[in-house]
Each structure stands twice: as C-alpha cells, then as structure tokens.
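Morning, I've got a small favour to ask if you have a moment. You're getting the sequence in one-letter code plus the fold written as tokens. Thanks so much in advance, here it is:

===
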Amino acid sequence: MRSTTDVQEIELIIENVGGGGGGKPPANDGGGDDGGRGRPFRRFSPKRYFTGIAVAIVSILMFFMALVSAYVVRKGSANDWATFHFPGLIWGNTAILVASSLTLELARKRLAKLDISGFRTLWWITTVLGLVFLAGQIFVWRQLLDQGVFMATNPASSFFYVFTGAHAFHIVAGVGTLLFVALRNFDRAKVTRAVAAEVSSYFWHFLDGLWVFLAVLLYLGR
C-alpha cells in the first residue's frame, strides 16, 4: 500500500505536467474557436486619446495660422480691399459659444461628483448651444448675402467666408464629439466617460478660443 507521502508526490507531478511545469494554469488568451469571447475586457490607456486630440489641435491651429498669415499679407498689399457692414450677430454667436464652454465645465464638475444626471443635463445644454451657434452662423451668411456681399465680391469678403466656414466645419466635428459622449454607453467602452469628457472639453475649448480670436481679427480687418 502506498504511503500518504507517495500519493502527494504523484499528485504534485501531475499538477506540474498539466500546468506547464510551473504549477500555474495556462493563460487564456481568448483564442481558439470561441472567437475571442473569453478574452478579458481591457480599457485603452487614456494617453492615446490625449495624444490624438493634441495632434488634432496642433494641426487645426497650423491650418488657421496659415490662413491668418495669408490674410495679413493680402490685406497689406491689396488695393481692392473693400470694407462691408460687419454683422452684429457675430458677437451674439460668440457669447453663445463662450456660454457653451461654461456649461461644459459645469457638466464635468457634476461628473466628478458622480452626479450623472446633472452631467447629462449640462452636457446636452452644451451640445444644443453648439447647434445654436451653427444656426447663428447661417443667419450671418444670410445677412451678408442680403447685402450683396458674396465670397467673390472682394478679398475681405472672401476671407470672411473662408474663416467662418472653416471654423463652422470644425464646430460640426466638435458637436459630433459632444454627441458621442452624450449617447455612448461607457460600461463596455474602451475609454471611460471621464476621459472622453475631458478630451472632448479640450477640443471644444480650443474651438471656442479660436473663434474669439477670429471674430476680433475679422472685425478689426474688415
């Protein structure tokens, strides 16, 4: 009859062989015929999102700075630069965009306090304000058209349409990011709601500050 010690030694050998020699079970890498269903869920590092938005902001900034340089050079060397009535609605739109940055930050504070309901309410207000800004820009263009000021009327009007149109295009992208955060289910997302809100806020605040700069530039150089 085998002793208790012999039985324990045999069991130990079996465990070592079955566990790959280390006594540890083989890692489940999610492969095989199950299509990866056994793979554990992991969130991506937030660094990649912050890096991505930083690259986007720098790229947009370089684009607009190139336009500003062309604007300054063209205005300084043009004999056909004609002024036009600057739409006062621009300042109303500016106030709306600044207000949207404030509501966005209030939303992030609600999120930091785990007040999801308050966060969503303020986040939706920010999104609506962004849409109102876009609608206001359309009214600005309509006012210029009613004045007979078109994109090809003179260099001043051309730059006005280019600046405001390019910025409006990026605001559409910004509203898209706000909608993503508002509608996304973050329970199984690769990014947390807090990171998504923070990254989106950087982009939105950048567009806000950029617009204030462009509005002042266009007003002084009209």
Observations:
- The chain has two domains: 4-34, 46-220.
